[in-house]
Amino acid sequence: MAKFVDTIGDVMATLWYEDQPVCVICHEGEGPVCQVCREVYFLPAAARCRCCGKIMLQAKLDRAEEACRTEDICHDCREGRGPQSLARVTVLGRFQGGWRDFIHTVKYRRNPQLLTLVAEEACRWASRHLPVPDIITAAPMHLEKIRERGFNQAEVLASLLAWRLTVSYLPLLRREAQNVSQMGLDRRARLQNLAKAISLNPEYRNGEKLRGRVCWLIDDVTTTGATLEQGARTLRAGGAREVYGFCLGGAAIGNGQWTMDNGQ
Hints:
Layout: H1 8-12, H2 35-42, E1 47-48, E2 55-56, H3 63-69, H4 75-78, E3 88-94, H5 97-108, H6 119-129, E4 135-138, H7 143-149, H8 153-165, E5 168-169, E6 173-175, H9 187-194, E7 198-200, E8 214-222, H10 226-237, E9 242-250, E10 252-253
Helix pairs in contact: 6-8, 9-10
């Protein structure tokens, strides 16, 4: 069993920036992320749906998707199947190949320190596409899962972003129960699965910390957006004025849908 990290401060105390001579994704180019991997996985020129964050590729778009490409809103969001409580979601890169392997190495091989190597890249992207937050928080993980893994990767990333932006990181959300796995569920089923599982931490339920604030909600990966959506609903109900989502990896439309779950 992994050593349990009691607080995010314990995690951050172990994360020291080290010069990365090779790319953390391909392990060949200049680090921390080479230009080739930026183009392949981060797709800086590709539009993101300004509602759900899906990367909108130009190749093989169907007619409905092509019609809304110029407005940067995907077909699902135009049809009302996108997030309702989130003002916007943006993702750093496409969850596939080497970028997916990197995220899995962080999570499943228990290497949260690797996030320091991409935190600057993540911060630049998020700051360019989202308004300045008052508070940054993370998608919660159930206590049993944290004990098993030793950390919540979303919390580590959120803290790194908050430190770089010099804004408050607060653990606003909690996972009430280890609910049924999200793997294989569609978006509606995932939302139902999460409806009673995510709540505000008791110390933030009086609304004083959240009232009128702009929040960034951070996770490692988004696919259907259900975790971000339920987290945003909870934050809005607690008084937040606007909630924006940011993730390292996300789905793409244009040459097939990606359906990998975030594994929490």
